[in-house]
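Raw record, unedited: TIGR00366 family protein
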Amino acid sequence: MENGRKKNGIFQKFLDFVEWLGNKLPHPVTLFALLAGLTLVASAILSMLEITVEHPADDQGTVSVNNLLNGEGISYIFSSMTDNFINFAPLGVVLMTMLGIGVAERSGLISAALRGFVLAIPNQLITAGLVFAGIMSSLASDAGYVVLPPLGAVLYLALGRHPLAGLATAFAGVSAGFSANLLLSGTDAMLSELSIAAASVLDPQYAEGMNVAMNYYFIFVSVFLLTLVGWFVSDKIVEPRLGSFDSKNADEEAVNSTDEMNPLEPIEKKGLVWAITSMVVGALLASLLVLLPNSPMRGDDAVGDYMDTIIQSPFMSDGLVPIIAILFFIPGLVYGLITKSIRNDKDVADQMTKTMAAMGMFIVLAFTAGQFVAYFAESNIGLVIGVYGAELLETLNLTGIPLIIGFMFVTAVVNLFIGSASAKWAMMAPIFVPIMMQLGYSPELTTMAYRVADSSTNIITPLMTYFAIIIAFAQQYDRNIGIGTLISVMLPYSIFFFVAWAIMLIVWMLFGIPLGPNAPIEYVG
């Protein structure tokens, strides 16, 4: 990591300090185990202090910190341990997706496709293309976190660039993509429904006029802003700081899996053509599961218009992960059969087995991370922190743009403790949406401000559920990499995204531009 690294500049020295400090922490597996233990101790102390808050939802009464070290808590620890591991959100998504990606990678398809991609476009546009792909990947929900960062690392390595820069570029794009896209996604539906419910408490009539596309105009334009910002940060800050890649601490298989940028052989071109054809056919067949009336994975027609039935369908919520795995598996199989890298079913099973073996570190990490996330949620510590943050913002008596910026900072802080965007907004929307409405700001604006702060800071909080898998991917190229290194690499993206996005939101407010269809900046009761 130190070889050829750029050291000049105050900001670079600050990032070096962040990395040094963060890497003083234990191994990520140990760290999550320690955090789980600290959560248990904190829950006991805060419970004894009888700290309580009013639940954001009016009908939930008061909330106190649950003591996880009393008799009932200890019973919970042991009875939930297996479920905490198995139900850790990224575990199933990652392993399911990697089964398909593993065949595509080990058959040679991904390497050939990347070589073809790199040779077809100017090198100057590689970074921008990777950021853009990351942003658009939110259409596939969380699968982007699993698919694009490792592909970005492989792509950069094939170009002779630092693989961690490619991983970071894709990771930044995927995180930002949950609040920036050219199309609507399941995230829009999920967050907008929570905003509508919160607004209906104060003004049911206004809430009836709100819609899933309430932030669409803003997130559409955000795609282009964030692509440019991510491109700048990657090429001018992150990659120069990382310097040249030293493979002495990398997994030999990961480094050797990338071919040089030689032109594709005729057999590779033939394999690519048939693989792409099979992927297109598979995607078309999969789309029939949701697009046609009465399709088996279509949403309830009663939920709204045609797009609503797609966005809020089982296809988008639960079906995308296995479909994405299949859409990698089939082309990988086709490519392997044509190029003879797959000759029989034993080769397929062997490739999938090796892929799962390579995920061993992540599986161990998922166990300790799963315990910590579950204990933190069960203790109610995150909820208490969020409510106190809201009360702090109220006491500051801010108005106008300072109010919006203050709200974004509160969101960013809460995001360090609660990784799930929907869980945070379910907690924060009932508090902040009515407050902002009473101050003359629309629920749509409050929702967008929340999304900007949440997406900008996801990449620097270890509590974001996919942070663990990103570390596991990064350790393939530097087995000594720690949380501090990853945070220091991602921090420039977080800062620049937050600042640029906040400026864009302020401009939007000053000009009174609607955030989406029938979604004004101001609220008039």
